[in-house]
Structure formats: structure tokens, C-alpha cells
Design brief:
Number of helices: 0
Structural class: mainly beta
Radius of gyration: 29 Å
Shape: elongated
Distance between the termini: 28 Å
Strand order of the largest sheet: 20-22-28-25-24-30-32-33
Largest sheet: 8 strands, antiparallel, barrel
Length: 385
């Protein structure tokens, strides 16, 4: 698949670029062995100079090279000289290019450099991206199968006729083992790993391989992707220790007891939410009127006696046993706090979103949680948006 990457014109001072000059673009076309740089003929230009700079990254974001960072790599004479192939590029390295146009008098009349846009290219097979293709509420993942999604590096050579090699190791194993070879199609691969053991956490990597002209080209391996073979939806036992009723005051402190109900549930993390309150919902039996109250967790205990503030990094729900949680309800715009609590005959539940509670199951997306205080149950799943 050919990708055309465009760098637009940054307007220079009036002394160097005509105010009537049309936009001057450059197109980059990476291959397995080179990067082709091309541009449209510029009216009045009889000579072009090509400049190149390596592109570095902060995490996934490129750092824009300054104009002085570009070094001249080619000079072409003639009105029709509107392309140049760079064969002296290193593999796994990303480059940006600037083209300058000159008239018969040697005066620069246009330049493709601009400060607020950047395109770049890498010769050879770029490092692909590996992610979980679980799509949240669509239930593609489970504790019996894990879905992988591999996409090509669109700034590198085409992956047509390339294959993706997928590697895996279980938690605690030292070496990755090849588990599948899948042909790339339209720039991506979807693979379902059905040979997983329930409750085990797996680490995945992948790379691309392509043969051309009697040579074999390989990409770098992806970063490691960690996926647990656990239940997609977590289940909890929940008990409210604060009686239901009507409470005066601006806030109400309540105590909850929560524990895992699913044998193969993944990691659940409870976090403080100082930046925003989550909503608590109380619904009377007749369902004629509902009340909403801002809600947040404040402290935890393993014994319901020695309480500690919830750390910023959160506290993990233990695999066995209870975790006691203190929380606050805020009156907000209501006159009093009508709390369902553990009172019989009243529906009462808490709806939470990340980051108050995060369920690290096999899916992707934000955690959505419901703690039903009347039924003393709870569940969490990852909703993909």
C-alpha cells in the first residue's frame, strides 16, 4: 500500500518568497531499500536542493527538526527535475525532507519547510503496532481466547506480501516462542490465540517479514503486550455496612465491604478520585423518583478497624478475603442525603467509571462498574468507545 506523506509550505519572509507563490509540497514514498522524494514543478524554478534530517521521538510523538537541522543531500538542475531517490538511509530510522526551489538568478523562491506540520518516512519494514483487539463490550476476548491486532507502520515500506510472526511467553517464562505466522492483508492482521490457559497472564510480541529480490527483510519486534486469560466481566460480593435513611449535612461517610466473586477474575484496582466525584444513584422501590449524589472513595482497611488513605497508585482488591472501603456522599444540589444503604426493600446502587475502579481484564477500554447494595453484588467490564 503506497502512503503519500506531505510536508506543506511554511511561508518565509517577503524577501525570500513571493506573496503570490502557490503551496509547495513534497511527497515521500518509502520502499524496502530507499525513500523517494518528489514534488511538483515550481513556476520559475530551474534548480532544486534537497535537505534531510533524522526524526527523533518522545514516546510516540515526533520531535520537529528545526530548519538548521536539515543537511543538504542533493542538488538538481532543470525544470523537470522534480524527484530524487535517497538510497543512503539507514533502516529503522525516520527521516524528514525539505526541498528548496531556486530561480535562474540563484534566488530561493520557495521552501517546503513549516514549523507546525511534519511528515517523515522510514525505508524498510517499520516496527508494527500490536494491541488487544478485544473491542470492550463486544466480548471478543475471554479467559479461553485472546484477540491480537497488528497494524503496519504507515510511514515505512508497504507490507504487501509480508507476513506477521507472533511470539508469546507465559508469565514467569524467560523466552518468547513463535506461535503463529499470518499473512498481512490491507496493512493489518487479526489473530485469535485460542491456546491459552485460564488464569494465566501472557506476553506477546510480533514482527514483520517480507521477501523481495532474493532478500529477506525484517522489522523490529513490537513492544510487549500483556494480556491475562481471565473473565471478561468481573463479579464482586458487596455489602454496605451503613444503614439506609435520610441524612442531614453536606456529606455522608459510608462503609462498604467488597470481595471477588469470580474465580478467574483479573486485577481490580480501587483509586482515590480527588479531581472529580463519581455519581451515586439511589432509587426508591416504586421507581417514581431518583436521587443522584457525588461519590468518592477515601480510605481502605483489611479488617474494618485500621484505616489508611487510598494511595494515589490505588489499592488492589485481594484475590481472597475482603477489602473494606470508606466513601463519601456529597449532598450537592439536594436538600438532604437519602441513602438506600443496606435497608430492605429499597433499590440502591453505585455506578463508577475509571479511575475510581479499574478492572484489568482481557478487554480494552474504560471500566464501567455497578455495585448493587440491595442485591449485594457487583460487576465491572471494559467498555470500548
Amino acid at each position: 500500500m503506497m502512503m503519500f506523506l506531505i510536508i506543506g509550505l511554511a511561508f518565509l519572509s517577503p524577501s525570500t518568497v513571493s506573496a503570490k507563490a502557490k503551496r509547495f509540497d513534497v511527497t515521500l514514498k518509502p520502499s524496502l531499500t530507499s525513500v523517494k522524494v518528489s514534488w511538483p514543478a515550481k513556476k520559475g524554478a530551474v534548480r532544486y536542493k534537497v535537505y534531510r534530517s533524522e526524526v527523533t521521538f518522545t514516546e510516540d510523538d515526533p520531535i520537529y527538526p528545526k530548519l538548521q537541522d536539515y543537511k543538504k543531500v542533493a542538488a538538481l538542475k532543470g525544470k523537470t527535475k522534480t524527484s530524487w531517490t535517497d538510497k543512503k538511509v539507514k533502516k529503522f530510522t525516520y527521516y524528514a525532507y525539505v526541498v528548496k526551489a531556486f530561480n535562474q538568478k540563484g534566488k530561493q523562491i520557495a521552501c517546503t519547510y513549516q514549523t507546525d506540520d511534519l511528515s517523515y518516512a522510514c525505508r524498510g519494514l517499520g516496527r508494527p503496532s500490536l494491541s488487544n483487539g478485544g473491542y470492550g463490550e463486544n466480548y471478543t476476548n475471554s479467559r479461553k481466547k485472546l484477540h491480537l491486532y497488528l497494524s503496519e507502520d504507515y510511514y515505512a515500506a508497504s507490507t504487501k506480501n509480508a507476513v506477521a510472526v507472533i511470539y508469546r511467553k507465559a508469565e514467569g517464562e524467560k523466552k518468547y516462542k513463535k506461535i503463529a505466522t499470518v499473512r498481512m492483508k490491507n496493512g493489518f492482521v487479526e489473530y485469535m490465540d485460542k491456546k491459552v490457559k485460564t488464569g494465566v497472564t501472557y506476553h506477546y510480541k510480533a514482527r514483520l517479514i517480507k521477501k523481495s529480490g532474493g532478500k529477506t527483510y525484517r522489522s523490529k519486534k513490537t513492544n510487549s503486550l500483556e494480556l491475562p486469560a481471565v473473565n471478561f466481566r468481573a463479579k464482586y460480593r458487596v455489602k454496605c455496612l451503613t444503614p439506609g435513611g435520610t441524612y442531614n449535612g453536606d456529606t455522608l461517610e459510608i462503609t462498604l465491604c467488597i470481595s471477588k466473586a469470580g474465580k478467574y477474575d483479573g486485577k481490580t484496582l480501587i483509586s482515590p478520585v480527588d479531581r472529580e466525584w463519581n455519581l451515586y444513584h439511589y432509587i426508591p422501590v416504586k421507581n417514581t423518583e431518583g436521587y443522584q449524589y457525588p461519590f468518592r472513595f477515601t480510605a481502605y482497611s483489611s479488617s474494618n478497624s485500621l484505616w489508611k488513605p487510598i494511595p494515589e497508585k490505588g489499592i488492589e482488591l485481594p484475590a481472597k478475603g475482603n477489602l473494606y472501603l470508606k466513601a463519601e456522599l456529597q449532598k450537592g444540589e439536594n436538600d438532604v442525603i437519602r441513602f438506600g444503604g443496606c435497608s430492605k426493600g429499597k433499590e440502591s446502587y453505585i455506578e463508577l467509571e475509571e479511575p475510581a475502579l479499574t478492572y484489568q481484564g482481557p478487554g480494552v477500554g474504560y471500566t464501567m462498574t455497578v455495585l448493587d447494595l440491595s442485591e449485594e453484588t457487583g460487576s465491572a467490564y471494559q467498555e470500548w468507545d
